[in-house]
Design brief:
12% of the residues lie in helices and 47% in strands. Keywords: Hydrolase, Protease, Thiol protease, Ubl conjugation pathway.
C-alpha cells in the first residue's frame, strides 16, 4: 500500500523527498505543534503529520490520534495518517474482529517513559499511559489480521479462528469523536492465505459485486459463492466500505 501510494505521488509530480531521504508517505512539519483542547476541556500538545495526497489515500486513508499521558505532565498527542490498521489477534481474549479493535484502542502502560518536563520527579522517568484512537475514518477500512509473526524460532503462522461480520459498527471507544456518523461499514472483500507456513501456501480473494453477489478469485478460477463461505474464520485481510 505504501509503495503504491509513493508511486502515485510521484506520478502527480509531488516531491516527497527531503535532503535525499525518501519520505513521500507523509509530510513532516517539525514546528507543527499546537495545544488543542479536547473533550471535557482537557488540553494536549498535538503534533500532526499529513499525507501527501494520492488517489489511494483518498480511498483508504484515515488519521490516528495517539495520546501519551504522564503524571505531572501535559498530555502529548500525535496525529498520524494510516492506510490500513494492523490488528493483534494473538491474545486469548480476541475471538472476533470487534475484540481485536477493542484491544487496538485499549490504553497501555509505558515503562521507563522519560517526560520532557518531569515536574518534581528528578529522574525524568514517570508512569505514562498511551492510547490510540481513530480521528478521521477512511472510506474503505482495511483491517490486517497479524497472522504472521517473526521471532527466535523463525517465521510462524497463527491459525487461530477469528470471526468477522458482514456489517461492522465501530465502537465509540475506538473513535476520537463521539459522533455516530460514519461508524457503519459493510464487508466488500477479504484475502485469505492458505497454508501451514508463512513461506509457503496460496492466496485467494473474495469480493462482493454491486448486485450483492460474492465471487471467489483463485488464480484463473472465479466462482460464485454464498455469504456462509465468505464468513470463514481464517481471513488475513478484510476490506470494509463506509455506508
Amino acid at each position: 500500500m505504501d509503495q503504491m501510494h509513493d508511486e502515485l505521488v510521484k506520478l502527480q509530480g509531488q516531491s516527497g523527498s527531503s535532503n535525499g531521504v525518501r519520505s513521500s508517505l507523509v509530510s513532516y512539519a517539525e514546528d507543527d505543534e499546537w495545544e488543542t483542547v479536547g473533550p471535557k476541556n482537557k488540553s494536549a500538545v498535538t503534533r500532526t503529520q499529513s499525507f501527501l495526497p494520492s488517489e489511494l489515500s483518498d480511498i483508504f486513508g484515515g488519521q490516528l490520534r495517539s495520546v501519551v499521558k504522564a503524571i505531572g505532565n501535559k498530555a502529548s498527542a500525535t496525529v498520524q495518517p494510516f492506510l490500513l490498521l494492523h490488528l493483534d489477534i494473538h491474545p486469548e481474549a480476541v475471538h472476533t474482529i470487534e475484540d481485536a479493535l477493542h484491544l487496538f484502542s485499549a490504553p497501555e502502560f509505558l515503562e521507563g517513559y522519560r517526560a520532557s518536563t518531569a515536574g518534581k520527579c528528578q529522574t525524568g522517568v514517570v508512569t505514562a499511559k498511551k492510547s490510540v484512537k481513530i480521528q478521521t475514518l477512511s472510506k474503505i477500512m482495511i483491517l490486517h489480521l497479524m497472522r504472521f509473526s517473526y521471532g527466535s524460532q523463525g517465521s510462524t503462522k497463527l491459525h487461530k479462528p477469528v470471526r468477522f461480520p458482514l456489517e461492522l459498527v465501530l465502537g465509540r471507544e475506538l473513535l476520537v469523536s463521539s459522533s455516530t456518523e460514519g461508524r457503519k461499514y459493510e464487508l466488500v472483500a477479504t484475502i485469505t492465505h492458505h497454508g501451514r507456513e508463512p513461506s509457503k501456501g496460496h492466496y485467494t480473494a473474495d469480493a462482493r459485486y454491486p448486485n450483492g453477489q460474492w465471487l471467489r478469485f483463485d488464480d484463473a478460477s472465479v466462482t460464485a459463492i454464498g455469504t456462509s463461505k465468505v464468513l470463514h474464520d481464517q481471513a488475513y485481510v478484510l476490506f470494509y466500505e463506509q455506508t
